[in-house]
Amino acid sequence: MKILLVEDEPKLNAFVKKGLEQNGYTVDSVANGSEALSLAASLAYDLIILDLMLPGQTGFEVIDNLKDFDIKTPVIIMSAINSADRVIKGLDKGAVDYIKKPFDFGEFLARIRAVTRRGTARSFTSYKLGDLQMDLLARKVIAKQKEISLTKREFSLLELLLSNCNRVVTKTEIAEKVWEVNFDMGSNVIEVHLSQLRKKLADENIIQTKIGIGYYIEGELIKG
Ligand code: CA
Fold this sequence. Notes:
By secondary structure, the chain is an alpha/beta fold. Helices cover 41% and strands 22% of the residues. The strands form 3 sheets. Strands 2-1-3-4-5 form a 5-stranded parallel beta sheet, sandwiched between helices. Strands 9-8-7-6-13 form a 5-stranded antiparallel beta sheet, covered by helices on one side. The chain starts with a strand and ends with a strand. Bound molecules: calcium ion (CA). Calcium ion is lined by residues 8-9, 51, 53-54.
């Protein structure tokens, strides 16, 4: 689970980051909206925790900008402003939860778990990218007009990369989501599976490598 934390108050930022990391989350933290946007646009996060009063752009503006960039990562607002109209505005803008500061850390963690559980339900059942088609329910993959057979791991790997199309998925995240292990397995295991997958897809270039970071698929993805 990878979280992007956006909080400009240094002490609170450090406290929340540390608390989340102690509970097994991987956390990138930034102190303003524009840094948050550039990270969210280039790396895949499972969740964004967003303060409202930020220098530069407000949290609400960040949410609008995420939408403009078509970034669908769930957002939890974390704010000291606790008037009902702010909460309503935040939720109406698409935030999945609104946590009022100061908060109990145990409750904060429970809310994150609740949101990410909801997030695990798939919202799409198929992907299409050029002549590659993936049917998530029938577990069928068609590449270059031919149905191909993938192992469970290859299927999960392709699904993970396609669902994060145009964003780099890190090796740690692949290890977590495809192998369900909480450590970096090193690139070798992943690289071997990727090279098998590239072969089966009959396209050596579809899955690209961002050296030292991870992998990505680029293109115009159609979700069904
Ligand atoms: Ca603030």
